[in-house]
Write a structure and sequence with these properties.
4 strands, 9 helices, globular, 52% helix, alpha+beta, Glutaredoxin
Length: 216
């Protein structure tokens, strides 16, 4: 198994958490430095024409892409511990919470969007931070409201870690990147604090990966 990764990538962070939870260690990790534009190189385009990470390549050459699809693949191929509840409505809620992060919010703040804002609209660094902060805050407010549900337990969906928690952890790191305080979202913060006491989450944190800046 080969994982195409970058320390700062929140989508890859999600996959690292799942791999850790499943006890899977990739045979090879290939760095794709998004800040240097490695994703646009010919060799990586052959792996993923969307020029996005993560990509996970299985031993038989199968290329998996998009973080949520990879999470569900890992859950089906390696079912213990499960990342989705058994009950259909609970599964749907866990998926929906995950998609608020991975589908509705994160795509607005990825490098290609930030680069486009700077290049085409001349948005300066402060403006890009304001942009990211806005969309993250909108999502965190929505998540906080959803998490008032009695279905929320120790984690997003009951007392079992699910894909929703994996995505919430990545949202919290995105909030750090874009200077978005979690204090106004106490349920989000409670769950995030709990998640990072779990080794699989703590060990996957972007700032603990090779290439991450020290002392941040």
């Amino acid at each position: 198994m080969k994982l195409f990764s970058f320390w700062r990538s929140l989508a890859t962070f999600r996959v690292r958490i799942a791999l850790n939870l499943k006890g899977i260690t990739p045979d090879e990790i290939v760095e794709i430095n998004l800040l240097k534009g490695d994703q646009r190189g010919d060799s990586f385009r052959k792996v993923n024409p969307m020029m996005a990470i993560p990509s996970l390549v299985e031993d038989d050459g199968t290329v998996l892409f998009e973080s949520l699809a990879i999470l569900e693949y890992l859950d089906e191929a390696h079912p213990h511990p499960p990342l989705l509840p058994k009950e259909p409505k609970a599964r749907a809620r866990a998926r929906a919470l995950a998609q608020i992060v991975a589908c509705d919010t994160h795509p607005l703040t990825v490098p290609r969007v930030r680069e486009y804002l700077a290049r085409e609209y001349k948005v300066d660094d402060a403006g890009v931070i304001k942009w990211g902060n806005h969309w993250l805050s909108e999502a965190l407010a929505g998540l906080e409201t959803h998490l008032q549900s009695p279905e929320t337990g120790r984690y997003c969906q009951g007392d079992q870690v699910t894909v929703a928690d994996i995505c919430l952890a990545s949202q919290s790191v995105g909030a750090f990147y874009f200077k978005c305080d979690l204090a106004p979202y106490p349920t989000v913060k409670r769950i995030v604090d709990e998640l990072f006491t779990i080794d699989a989450f703590a060990r996957a944190h972007p700032l603990k990966q090779p290439g991450a800046p020290a002392g941040v």
